Amino acid sequence: MTAVLGADLGRGSGPLTGVGLAFRRALRADRWFWLIWVLVLWSFIPATATAYRSTISDDAAGREVAAGLAANPTMRAMLGPPYDLLHVGGFTMWRVGGFGAMISGVMAVLGVIRATRAEEEAGRTELLRSAAIGRHSLLAGAGGLGLAASGVLGLLIAASMVGLGTPVAGSLCMALGIALTAAVFVGVGAVTAQLSASARTARGVGLSVVGAAYLLRAVADGSGSGSSVRWLGWLSPVEWAPLARPYAAERWWVLLLPLVVAAGLIALAFSLEARRDHGAGLRAARPGPARGGEAFDSADALAWRLARPGMIGWGVGLIAFAVVMGSLADVFETVADSPELAERFRRMGAGAADLRLAFFVAMLGILVVLVAIWALQLVEHIRKEEESGRAEAVLATATSRARYLGAHVVPAVVVPTLVLAAIGVLLSLQSGIATNDASLIGRILGGALALAPGVWFVLGVGVAVHGLAPRLALVPWVVVGWSLVVNWIGGVLGFPESLLKATPFGLLPRIPAEPMAWAPVIVESVLAGLLIAAGFWGYQRRDVG
User: Fold this and answer.
1) What is the pLDDT of the chain when averaged over all its residues?
2) Largest CB tally within 10 Å, which of 143, 171, 249, 352?
């Protein structure tokens, strides 16, 4: 076959032959992926802009709130640098622009790897290359689709912000900043797809880059104005869009950074693809031992081995973020001089009178959703192993379906729960030491564990869907996506209390702002257990594959 392909390509076929076909094929296969991501990301922008006056009023109190938000290091660490909070465009860029840029990076990494390395791993790329199609055409088609989606996202943002009456220059700067950030991570996804023969590893590396960029930005923005680490923000791709200062004397030259880096990464991806074998990564997989050790003689050991890279990446990232944000907790108390601002922060923290406690409650509300996303991703290994055919090979042995499913579910329950507990400790550790208040650590730990049933419920939905109706695999992701929207911008958009409570975490007690309530904790834990049991029941009765 190699000789035939070489002869075909030698008769007038270039490295980009058939790139249009590759683009259309990627669009046909992944159109819903890109459409949903783009529309959801875009919706954050106009929704936040229309709710501007509910956050920053047009009076002296509103100006005081804006000044307090801009001066607060914790808010800068969470949301990025504020340049103009007294106008709707500048506020929108600060509140959701940086967040949108980061999430657009997640979209780009997942989308490009989905259309390149995952297709190659599944064997479909080899089928396409059996025709007269260039070596780089499939990568070019996938990258082109990612860039097109980034451009569409930018156009929607620009059109909606201009339509809301914000200045055209600021709208274009904001749209270009977010679209070019996504383009950078199109390049990141294309490069990581060349490094390993595993799509799972490529996703892990790509998402780690996104997480590292956000953490670097948070450290830089959370430091003082004269801090020696402020310059680190210039090394983070998710910081470049805010640094272009949309709606605040735009610095157009900053946008050259993502443009040049995106072009460089995409060129690097093509260069790396030319240097590796089809089906392999740039880093050649080493042959393993002829016989596995006792640590790999069961389905449980296999599941733990498959989950280990993701556990390390997610666990380290979440714990590092908890440490960074915990170091800024005491700064939150500086807003007490502004009654209006202090009251807003108390609402973020479920009404806690102590601003420090309000901060801890608010951060736990955000981080617990990320933990739930991680737990759901661990459960997704079952579906991916089934689609690849590897699950069938394991089930052909004496391993029962219940044991195989349990081998994946148990780590997804245990490890995220332990990390959630560690987050509670590390968020409050520095503050507890500084104030010599060991009980604070125990209270925040209790607050973290009180939210664990929400993680288990999301996990239960994922297991139930996989066991009973695997075609509905999008449902659990909709649940966590909605939870992220509610926790991140629900308060800003003025969602009614009924919607704020309509998440797996909404009815759970927000300790220490609220007293412990055992009823919702027990009920949701039982529901999670029932969903997991239903998933086990269905998995043992449906066809695998």
Assistant:
1) 84
2) 143
Residues 135 and 273 placed together within one structural domain of the fold: yes
Report yes or no on 6 lying in a domain. Answer: no
Tell me: pLDDT of 65 over 80. Answer: no
Distance CA 430, CA 541 (A): 51
- For residue 9, what pLDDT is reported? 40
Tokens at 50, concatenated: 């229309």
CA 234, 265, 170, 46 dihedral sign is negative
* Residue 491, helix vs strand vs coil: coil
Residue 1 lies in a domain: no
- Name the token pair of 19: 């790139």
What's the domain count of the chain? 2
Could you tell me which of 412, 423, 391, 417 has the C-alpha nearest to residue 476? 412
Q: How many CA atoms lie within 13 A of 192 on its CB side?
A: 28
The full DSSP string for 188-253 is HHHHHHHH-S-HHHHHHHHHHHHHHHHHHHHHHHHS-TT-TTGGGGGG-HHHHHHHT-TTSS--GG
Q: Write the pLDDT tens digit of every residue in 273-332.
A: 888 776 666 666 666 666 656 656 677 777 887 788 778 888 888 888 888 888 777 666
Handedness of CA 297, 298, 303, 308 (dihedral sign): negative
pLDDT, tens digit, 9 for 90 and up, residues 350-379: 667 777 888 888 888 889 999 999 999 888
Residue 290 lies in a domain: no
SS3 category, 76: helix
**SS3 state of residue 268:** helix
The H-assigned helical ranges of 282-400 are 299-326, 339-348, 355-388, 390-395
Q: Is the pLDDT of residue 482 over 60?
A: yes
* Per-position b or e across 430-459, b if 16+ CB within 10 A of its CB: bbbeeeeeeebbebbbebbebbbbbbbbbb
**501 Cβ partners below 8 Å, 6+ apart?**
507
Buried b (16+ CB within 10 A) or exposed e, 186-214: bbbbbbbbbbbbbbbbbbbbbbbbbbebb
Residue 225 has pLDDT above 90, yes or no: no
Q: Which of 224, 250, 281 is the last residue of a domain?
A: 281
> 127 and 26 in one domain?
yes
Would you say 115 and 166 are in contact if contact means Cβ atoms under 8 Å apart? no
Indicate the pTM of the whole model: 0.83
Q: What is the share, in percent, of the chain residues with pLDDT greater than 70?
A: 87
Domain span including residue 129: 14-281
Q: Are residues 115 and 208 in the same domain?
A: yes
pLDDT tens-digit series, residues 73-124 = 777 888 888 888 888 999 999 888 888 999 999 999 999 999 898 888 777 7
pLDDT of 143 reads 92
Q: Are residues 267 and 342 in the same domain?
A: no
Banded pLDDT at 181 (limits 50, 70, 90): very high
> Do 270 and 317 lie in a common domain?
no
Q: Do residues 133 and 22 touch, judged by C-beta distance below 8 A?
A: yes
